[in-house]
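job 3f2a | input accepted
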Amino acid sequence: MKTNAAVCFGGTEVFFCKNDQGSPATWISLMVDDVDAYYEQIKYTGAKILHQPDTKPWSMREILVECPDGHIFRIGHNTNCD
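job 3f2a | predicted structure (82 res):
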């Protein structure tokens, strides 16, 4: 049974997932041109980085950052464009 899906229109993508991906907080995905460059910008700012840049099997290179309220930001770029 699938637990996630995406809807794409033009340059906009909206992802949905079932069961909060293991966390009761909100997950937000942000696409950037170069996640490694973004990581270098924020790593010394005090940001709570949960995962360093990593290439995923779903064609994304991404990091996970937690905001002070406990919400998770998935920040990455599509590796099909590399």
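job 3f2a | The mean pLDDT is 82.
job 3f2a | closed
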